[in-house]
Amino acid sequence: MTTLLRVTCSACQWSNSIDTENQSAWLSRARLLRDTSTVDADLVCELFLGSISKLKCPLCQQSAIYARRIDSDDLETSDDESWGMARRCEVCKQPIAAERIEIFPDTRLCTKCQQTDDRGELPVAREYCPRCGSVMQLRQSTGGGLTRYLMTCLSCRR
């Protein structure tokens, strides 16, 4: 059973509903969870709620997020439209057109990102430096022998 959480940043007011798969992705990016294939959904949810202070907002990179469970009877009232706000795309964070939401009520992607997803060109999840929070880049190692690739941070040279 999937447990939905409403995650909100108190610094930039970003908010989103995330399911168990996204919770485990957040935990993996924060290096708090390794293998998600055998982990129970309730355990992932509890781990996410217990380590919320170590997680960062995807927009402002502040550790000012909080989460609450969304009950099945709360789903109707938790929609962004009921608060007068447009739902934002999960990839590019731009508002999704009201017409698109009317036709596809469960959509989480704008038209442009949905077309990219349909072509199989989804952007890869970014990894952030655990020390400074900057986006890490994949670099080829300079040593001889086998070619190796390492994730490095350009800001703190780690």
Could you explain the architecture of this structure?
The chain is of the alpha+beta class and 158 residues long. The protein has a three-stranded antiparallel sheet. About 6% of the residues have low confidence. It contains four helices and five strands; from the N terminus they run ββααβααββ. The longest helix is centred in the N-terminal third of the chain and has 10 residues. 22% of the residues lie in helices and 15% in strands.
Features:
single chain, 158 residues, alpha+beta, three-stranded antiparallel beta sheet, two-stranded antiparallel sheet, globular
Which quaternary structure do these chains form? single chain
Rg, please? 18 Å
Helix content: 10-25%
Q: What is the residue-mean pLDDT, rounded to a whole number?
A: 77
Low-pLDDT stretches? 73-81
Strand content: 15-25%
Helix/strand class? alpha+beta
In the sheet with the most strands, the strands line up as 2-1-3
The largest pleated sheet is described as: 3 strands, antiparallel
Topology:
Layout (H helix, E strand, L loop, with lengths): L3 E6 L5 E4 L1 H10 L11 H10 L14 E6 L27 H6 L7 H8 L18 E4 L8 E4 L6
Antiparallel strand pairs: 1-2, 1-3, 4-5
Q: What's the short version?
A:
The chain has helices at residues 20-29, 41-50, 98-103, 111-118; strands at residues 4-9, 15-18, 65-70, 137-140, 149-152. The protein has 158 residues and is α+β, with helices and mostly antiparallel strands.
